[in-house]
C-alpha cells in the first residue's frame, strides 16, 4: 500500500502561481507513473497531468497546457505540479495518484490516491 500526501494548496489571485507537492512512501516510487487530478463541487474527477516513471515524458489536459508543469524527483519520492497563470476555473481539490499501467488519463488506472489539497483562485 502506497501512501501519498499532497501539500501546497491555498488561496491565490487569478494570474498567480502555486506549486503543489505529493510525497510518496515506500521504495517503489520510480515504478509508477504519477498523475494529478482535480475535482470541483458537483463535477467529475478530471485529469490534469501525468509524468512517466523516469520523468522524461509528461501528459497534460488541454485546459492546462502551457500553464502547468508536472515533474518528479525520484530520489525524494516526490511529484510536483507547478501552476501558473491560474484562473478561477482551476479552483478544485487536487489529488495525486499512482498508476502501474497504461492509459494515464483514466482515473480507473490509478490504484493509490492522496487525500487532496484545496486550490482556490479568486477573480
Summarize the structure.
By secondary structure, the protein is mostly beta strands.
Give an account of the 3D structure.
The protein starts with a strand and ends with a strand. It is globular. It has 123 residues and is mainly beta. It has strands at 4-7, 10-13, 18-24, 33-39, 46-51, 58-60, 68-73, 78-83, 92-99, 110-113, 117-122. The strands form two sheets. Strands 2, 4, 5, 6, 9, 10 and 11 form a seven-stranded mixed β-sheet that branches. Strands 1-3-8-7 form a four-stranded antiparallel β-sheet, with no helix packed on it. The model has no long low-confidence stretch (mean pLDDT 95).
Uncertain stretches of 5 or more adjacent residues = none
As an assembly, this protein is single chain
Largest sheet: 7 strands, mixed
Summing up helix and strand content along with how strands pair, one would put the structural category as mainly beta
Mean pLDDT: 95
**How far apart, in Å, are the first and last alpha carbons?**
39 Å
* Beta-strand content estimate: over 45%
Question: What order do the helices and strands follow?
Answer: EEEEEEEEEEE
Shape: globular
Count all strands and give the number. 11
Give the helix tally.
Answer: 0
Residue share in helix: under 10%
Radius of gyration: 13 Å
Amino acid at each position: 500500500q502506497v501512501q501519498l500526501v499532497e501539500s501546497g494548496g491555498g488561496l491565490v489571485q487569478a494570474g498567480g502561481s502555486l506549486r503543489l507537492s505529493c510525497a510518496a512512501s515506500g521504495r517503489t516510487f520510480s515504478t509508477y507513473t504519477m498523475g494529478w487530478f482535480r475535482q470541483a463541487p458537483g463535477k467529475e474527477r478530471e485529469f490534469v497531468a501525468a509524468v512517466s516513471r523516469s520523468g522524461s515524458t509528461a501528459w497534460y489536459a488541454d485546459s492546462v497546457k502551457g500553464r502547468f508543469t508536472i515533474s518528479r524527483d525520484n530520489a525524494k519520492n516526490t511529484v510536483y505540479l507547478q501552476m501558473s497563470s491560474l484562473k478561477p476555473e482551476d479552483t478544485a481539490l487536487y489529488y495525486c495518484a499512482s498508476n502501474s499501467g497504461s492509459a494515464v488519463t483514466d482515473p480507473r488506472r490509478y490504484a493509490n490516491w492522496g487525500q487532496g489539497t484545496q486550490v482556490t483562485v479568486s477573480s
